[in-house]
Amino acid sequence: MSPVADKDESQYVRALDILDGRAYGFAIPILEALALRRYPPALSVLGDFVTPRRALELLRTGVRLRDPGCTYNLAIEYRNRGDLGRYRYWLARAARTYPDAREELSWFRTRFPHKIMRKFGRLCPWASWDR
User: Fold this and answer.
1) CA-CA distance, 24 to 18, in Å (whole number)?
2) Is the pTM of this model over 0.85?
3) C-alpha dist (Å) from residue 16 to 9, 20, 109
4) CA 92 to CA 69: how far, in whole Å?
5) CA separation for the pair 70, 44 (Å, rounded)
6) What residues have CB less than 8 Å from 62, skipping those under 6 apart?
7) Whole-number Cα distances in Å, 42 to 8, 13, 49, 96, 120
8) What angle do CA 75, 78, 82 make, to 5 degrees?
9) Which end of the chain is more exposed for a tag (fewer CB within 10 A), N or C?
10) Which CATH superfamily groups domain 3-130?
């Protein structure tokens, strides 16, 4: 691994430690600096802390860098927005290289147990597989 990649990885781990409360400091500036250097895991994590429009931009950048985690998270972002067409499209793209996406695609559904789906009319009734 190159020294630059080692530095990016160590900064990313530090930002995660800060977010988890295991270290002191500010994680968002670290993640933003890593995003400027196009470090894919940072693009994915930073998407949770920025505006929805910026989150899509970051995740699309990660997709262009061929990061399977960013592709999966882009699918989840579309699902949380209620856009099931794009959700299914990006989930199928993520399923090519990401095992979690492959499993989720195998049981694709249009109703979800997540509370956020109520505003889209996609909330499912309580099912036995949710218990």
Assistant:
1) 6
2) no
3) 11, 6, 32
4) 13
5) 6
6) 40, 43, 44, 69, 70, 71, 73, 74
7) 9, 10, 11, 22, 29
8) 135
9) C
10) Tetratricopeptide repeat domain (1.25.40.10)
Separation between Cα atoms, residue 8 and residue 45, nearest integer Å: 14
Check if the beta carbon of residue 11 is closer than 8 Å to that of residue 41. no
d(CA 36, CA 30): 10
d(CA 61, CA 42): 11
DSSP H helices, the chain, are 3-19, 27-36, 40-46, 52-64, 68-81, 84-95, 99-106
Does position 120 have pLDDT exceeding 90, yes or no?
Answer: no
* Rounded CA separation 36/108 (Å): 34
Q: How confident is the model at residue 1 (pLDDT cuts 50, 70, 90)?
A: low
Rounded Cα gap, residues 40 and 74, in angstroms: 12
pLDDT tens digit sequence for 78-87: 988 889 899 9
pLDDT-based confidence at residue 129 (cuts at 50, 70, 90): very low
